[in-house]
Design a protein that fits this description.
Blueprint lengths: L17 H14 L3 H12 L14 H10 L12 H16 L5 H20 L1
Length: 124
């Protein structure tokens, strides 16, 4: 997805309550034990939508769930994606969840942080 394109999809997840959200989150964390937390931390640090404030964490959990769906073709393996492809997926997930445009520089920061973190995790 390039800048200026409209989001083509509604969010994949339409969870009814906190219990459903917790169950899905637990399953995804178990299935993607490296990718899931790295996605969350990278988005929280880069904060592309400028919504994270002290004491107000976990603002991107819905985006992380969307990203896991979008990463399905590579089985959650971020290393199989180039930076431009990863950026497109992040922009798409953010648009699905927030409905607005993210700050370009912060999205790029999220991509860099995520790729670096994923590379470091692969070395462990």
């Amino acid at each position: 997805m390039t800048a200026g394109e409209e989001t083509l999809s509604e969010p994949f997840w339409n969870l009814g309550d906190a219990e459903e959200e917790r169950v899905v989150q637990d399953i995804l964390k178990r299935r993607f034990p490296v990718t899931y937390p790295l996605l969350g931390r990278s988005l929280e640090v880069a904060d592309p939508m400028n919504v994270v404030y002290p004491g107000n964490s976990d603002e991107y959990s819905d985006v992380v769930r969307e990203l896991v769906v979008l990463l399905a073709p590579v089985n959650g393996d971020i290393s199989k994606l180039g930076a431009a492809d990863l950026k497109g997926l992040i922009v798409e997930a953010l648009a699905r969840c927030f409905g607005g445009e993210a700050e370009e520089s912060r999205v790029e920061s999220a991509v860099r942080t995520l790729r670096r973190s994923f590379s470091e995790a692969a070395l462990e």
